[in-house]
Amino acid sequence: LNEIKRKTALATDVSNTFLALTSQAVLDMVGNDIVNITTDTPQQAVNFTRDRTNPVLEYYDLDMTAEQLKLHFSETVNSTSFSVVELSVQNTGNAGFTQTYTLTGGSVGVDSPDMTLSL
Q1: How big is the CA angle at 24 (ends 19 and 28), to the nearest 5 degrees?
Q2: Confidence category of residue 43, pLDDT binned at 50, 70, 90
Q3: Other Cβ atoms within 10 Å of 57 Cβ, number
């Protein structure tokens, strides 16, 4: 579904959610093919539920030599919404950190669950 989420004009509500399928998509219990629904006459969704799941940062890699921060999220994220100055690197995993650095710039790749930030 991440590839569908990348396409901002596809499957965002009932008006732009249609399905086509070939006769080989599924068989009934005695082996009959399903009736083909072509891309010329796709079937519109009856109901649609928007994505309400917040993305989660699952893991990241920091490469100080290549000057890259690679972030992996639980789902596709919008690269144009990415605000580098909202990220900080700190030296401990709790509130008692003694050194911290808030990023000040960099460039981001395309919409994806995997995002590379060039520092």
Answers
A1: 95
A2: very high
A3: 12
